[in-house]
Amino acid sequence: xxxxxxxxxxxxxxxxxxxxxxxxxxxxxxxxxxxxxxxxxxxxxxxxxxxxxxxxxxxxxxxxxxxxxxxxxxxxxxxxxxxxxxxxxxxxxxxxxxxxxxxxxxxxxxxxxxxxxxxxxxxxxxxxxxxxxxxxxxxxxxxxxxxxxxxxxxxxxxxxxxxxxxxxxxxxxxxxxxxxxxxxxxxxxxxxxxxxxxxxxxxxxxxxxxxxxxxxxxxxxxxxxxxxxxxxxxxxxxxxxxxxxxxxxxxxxxxxxxxxxxxxxxxxxxxxxxxxxxxxxxxxxxxxxxxxxxxxxxxxxxxxxxxxxxxxxxx
Amino acid sequence: xxxxxxxxxxxxxxxxxxxxxxxxxxxxxxxxxxxxxxxxxxxxxxxxxxxxxxxxxxxxxxxxxxxxxxxxxxxxxxxxxxxxxxxxxxxxxxxxxxxxxxxxxxxxxxxxxxxxxxxxxxxxxxxxxxxxxxxxxxxxxxxxxxxxxxxxxxxxxxxxxxxxxxxxxxxxxxxxxxxxxxxxxxxxxxxxxxxxxxxxxxxxxxxxxxxxxxxxxxxxxxxxxxxxxxxxxxxxxxxxxxxxxxxxxxxxxxxxxxxxxxxxxxxxxxxxxxxxxxxxxxxxxxxxxxxxxxxxxxxxxxxxxxxxxxxxxxxxxxxxxxxxxxxxxxxxxxxxxxxxxxxxxxx
Lengths: 315, 347
Hints:
The complex is a heterodimer of chains A (315) and B (347). Chain A has a single domain, classed as ABC transporter involved in vitamin B12 uptake, BtuC (Orthogonal Bundle), CATH 1.10.3470. Helices cover 70% and strands 0% of the residues of chain A. In chain A, helix 2 packs across helix 11, helix 2 packs antiparallel against helix 12 and helix 3 crosses helix 10. Chain A is globular. Chain B contains 13 helices and 2 strands; from the N terminus they run E-H-H-H-H-H-H-H-H-H-H-H-H-H-E. A two-stranded antiparallel ribbon of chain B has the order 1-2. By secondary structure, chain B is an all-alpha fold. At the A-B interface, helix 5, helix 11 and helix 14 of A face helix 6, helix 11 and helix 13 of B.
């Protein structure tokens, strides 16, 4: 027990929590926007892979880091366009199309990787985002290390959460996006385009997912591996449910989740790690996600038109 | 744009569009070959010869098709009831684990094969039972739970291979103790590298087809898939039907792992399945969820994989072209099937 308290009090633990939470926050916000507009986007896992790959490759080819982020976002939006074209105007099964997009995006990343780096055995490294040194704040004892020595992309992730919340609840556009996920016919009656709003939401949301993926290569690991997204996308789908489709709660969920993840990594170094197999620790995030889904199942406020395609003139 | 149902689609439309989807996929294949700097026609030719060009190639394709028939059937059965089982990968490993648990000396001839097959099916079924009960009782989306279980299962397999099932003679490779000879599926013809798993897979397809077309359960599965509210209103026990569907689906997926261990590999390793569970979704969708069609599409999909491996060695186009083609085929096919039923009108 005292070991756990020691871990929870250490500054490096909280620094890790914020770092681990960042890609989850970005991708969860992306998924949340899609779902609030009524579209379940199961392309998320593959779109994160594409973001991780394209962002990294762009920087490896000589682009600046923020250029890599922009490339990742654009690539994600392209796959969002593919997903939303099939699911919104054509109203195809969001389950099947989403999985298809994930398979297609993952395969595209693998294909392009092998095409561009045919001979390499280990992927080349790039110079990643460095922790920002903020005057005074970064030098604070404990807090400086825990909160104020993060990369710019982490700050961007938290800013995105704030912007998404403001956009959804404080702007007419946000109202329209929320309405299209609850009652598309009413939105149509207002003279707004259901197709346009939904496609726009999926495209923007997919862009954010891809930036979440790019965080892994540009800020966390500085290299690209095929298996690096490793189910994070699916965990983000669970986090949206856990956050009851609200940006603030989803943000807290991502941080809570990251805290468990950071804790399990550290617990592996303790006596518990000797007694229990390390695979149990690695499985913890997935087990927690399932528990979170069960916990929230009864009180989830699902958008009423989630997964319901809208066809004009049909009731 | 708006979609308008077509009352009586013409046969040209019903057959032409799916064929067009496959042709479009070939077009994408040629485009990818061009991008990779290879001759598109040569690449297609090398994939075809790699898959079917020799007796050895055909046998390799059929061997690769065997687990895909099982996982394709698992997905087809579940999707028919709109039960989104994306966990065939985990259920496959459940079957593979059972093959090792019972096949390494716990049971001898003649019981070991039938008992371990049955245990595999029960293991796979049990693994899907949880997500389905969560769906019917609490409304938890089964897509996410089955997907998450895939990751948990792979870690569990990794634990087994480093712990309780570790092969002492494995020289550090993470693989299980080998099966005893009595627990292995024999080859169909002596000297040819094709095991009885393939024949069992075809048998399974026929059994599923009979269930779907000749039994009450088959009728109920279709009714629940088409409209669960209507089925419930008609007095059908929708949740019971979903649970039965899940048991069938999970059991079929588990047989994929069981037959890979008992028929092909003879031991369990963590790379037993290069995503057979996920590829099963493509196999099932290309077959329009028809159980007999699954056999055909599984062989087709296996051929693409085996052929692409051979082509990649010769032409230098990355072997991942196979995964790209199959994902493309899936997306084109779902669109083509929709367009056989509706037409796009302006306004």
